[in-house]
Amino acid sequence: MWSALAKFILKNRIILLTSILLVTCYMVHRMRQVRVAYSFTQFLPNSDSASIDYENFKKQFGLDGTVMFAGMQTDSLFTDLNEFNDWYDLNYSIKNMHGIKEVVSAASLYLLSKNDSLQKFDFKPLLLRKPRTRQELDSVKKAIFALPFYDGFIFNRKSNSTLLAATFKDNDLNTSGRISIVDSLKAKVDAFGAKYRIPMHYSGMPYIRTVISRKVMHELSMFLFISIGVISAILFFFFRSFVMVVFPLIIVFIGVAWSVASISIFGYQITVLTGLIPPLITVIGVPNCILLLNKYHTEYRKHGNKMLALHTMVEKIGVSVFFANVTTAIGFAVFCSTRSQALVEFGFISSMNVMVTYCLSLILVPIVFSFLPAPKVNHLRHLERKHIVNVLGGVDTYTQKHRKPIYLVTVIVLLISFYGISKISTVGYVIDDLPSNDPIYTDMRYMENHFGGVLPFEVVIDSRKPNGVFADNGKTLFKIERLEKMFKQYPYFAKPISIIGGLKYANQAFHDGEPKYFILPTLGDLQSISQYATNSGSRQKQSLFKSVIDTSKRFTRADVEMADLGSIKMKQALATIEPRADSIFNYSVADKAWVPADQRYKLTYTGSSLIFLRGNDFLVTNLIESVILAVILVSLIMFLMFNSFRMVVVATLPSIIPLLVTLGLMGFFNIHLKPSTILIFSIAFGISSDGTMYFLTKYRQEIKNLNLTTSEVISLVIKETGVSMIYTAIILSFGFLIFIFSGFGGTKAMGILVATTLLMAYCSNLVLLPSFMLSTEKFIKRKTLTKHPIIDVKEEKFEDEGDLR
């Protein structure tokens, strides 16, 4: 098969080359159509109960996380007339921006007042114009501080902090237009801050999502350029030839273009995950070229026939690289077994393009180098570099004669690693991937310290009957008030926004704006307030109740912004809050018993931040299963190759041990187990199994030679595959290390951990794998390994190059 394939490629060079170039032109066209995702990556499957609850919430109350906050801490806002008036102008300038639905700040608050003549509430701006004198400004300050409804939400009197809250229109929230809106808004606020030398702080989901989307696109291009530089330097160091640098990179870049285009073709978008695919394809694709070219140089050095060397290259190494790429593809493809759409997209696109890049390498390398001049003597020197030859000689000696020390060191390292594994914790944060000195992180901490947090956390209360929110003499309302008081006991929750705040504000307005009446109205006042609210316009009612109650008045919500606690503390918080909230709504103090099940309120906890954190737990479980599935699938391939379960165990262990060591390092260095770090293990196992496949396919070819003992076969395989494995290990390790330049902590950790794991894995495949094979020689019969071979390569000889044309 492989001999026929080699002949086909070399005989149809022009047709194949032209076809690939035409397809590449189309792929470049599709690359330009790829879109960036402007919302947080959704990891929970749509069928998950938490996702269903969140979708129901959005249908009832609309999107959450639509507000961008700009905060500042200043004691001169209400003392400097110019500063306040500029703040006033800024508010209305932002409000008039495209894509902004509403702006609320200390300069644009709404006042609820009673209109006795029409028996309704008037809801209008507190300020109809800018104050003209210091006395007017003092009056404005007094009027604002007399509105407890906004205290803790728009301003914090204790710390002299204030917020500007800009609500985005739903149509612009998850589109590319959001970026220009955020940039324009931030530029206006920055100009104000610069004028008065006030540090400005920004947060809210629209802002966080925008910054992260921009980082994804920036890093996509940055990593491509860095990978080009790093890999070019390594290739030149190995081969000392610009030709050997340029053409492998061109081949790989074609694969990169196809991978980006495939994202567009299948209707996917660039996310934090899919944005990693182009640099991954670059890093993974180059070793294919190295293995093929090393074999080409080895064969050419034997007989000096270029076309014969290229033919043998495809015939002998094509199958080894094929199985190596299959194991790599498996490491990505196992993500398709999860129910997470984001992981399915990443796994499908990456695994498919690993194999596509392999096919491109197998076709283009022999075609390109068939047109280029034959390699010169200095181009072949890399095959016998003294240092590499000495290293491989030492490896051969130790595996043949000193296996006990190798096993002893391995056992000690594993024991230390198991101790490190015991120290690992599983935790994730909404902005976990950003460093602690990132402006998003520091600004979020500012918001948490002064306003309790900005991440959406929602409690939906189902009274189970129409008008149930107001029925039973306001029983539900008093329960919601108790719920709000409970949330105020926890410092990591912001001031709740619910119908209670609106009713308290209405009660204050009903009593002529007296702050002491900012309390839940009595039953008698509630009826009058309800009549006033009914007589008010629909827009005023909407503004008053902030979309916290549905039209049937059966469902209501409590919007409680929260701090970024992390998955562990969030679980602990929910474990404390849920039973307390349940007892508030469903336990009768008078009867000292729980109300009947069919009469109980149903409380649903949701919000985009909670969905994200629950998605973290979902991913941890699913990714662990993916690693196990990757091990099983790769082991199955090895079983089909050798028809021996013992051989599978021997061949799999050298790739699993580095994973355990990496887990131990994570425990010692306090690297949390989370989606971005668990992601590395199935990827690393798939790639590290490449070395196993290189070694085993060569071993499988040579074991048929009955004139050689098993020990001699192992020595030959180490010598033949060792150079390529060393080159591959270095390129892969340095290729993944480029991710340390990422602004995302998870991507940075992935780069370091994958690079470390792969380096250990290739060392393990060079040292442990042959050691295990020699030690188990008596238990694995040679006849079993040569029976029913899957790989049966026959070298076909021909007289001249014309046989290939």
Count of DSSP-assigned helices: 26
Question: What percentage of the residues does DSSP assign to strands (E)?
Answer: 5-15%
Most strands sheet: 5 strands, antiparallel
Number of strands: 14
Radius of gyration: 33 Å
Oligomer: single chain
End-to-end C-alpha gap: 18 Å
Q: Which structural class do you get from the secondary structure elements? A: alpha+beta
Poorly predicted sequence stretches spanning 5 or more consecutive residues: 789-801
Shape: elongated
Helix content: 55-70%
Q: On the 0-100 scale, what is the average pLDDT? A: 84
Describe this structure in words.
The protein is α+β, with helices and mostly antiparallel strands and 805 residues long. It contains 26 helices and 14 strands. Strands 2, 3, 6, 7 and 8 form a five-stranded antiparallel sheet that branches. A three-stranded antiparallel sheet has the order 11-10-14. A two-stranded parallel sheet has the order 1-9. Strand 6 (155-156) and strand 7 (161-168) form a beta hairpin. Helix 2 runs antiparallel to helix 12 (341-371) and helix 24 packs antiparallel against helix 25. It is elongated. The two termini are 18 Å apart. The model is unreliable at 789-801 (pLDDT under 50).
Main attributes of the structure:
805 residues, 5-stranded antiparallel sheet, alpha+beta, single chain, 7% strand
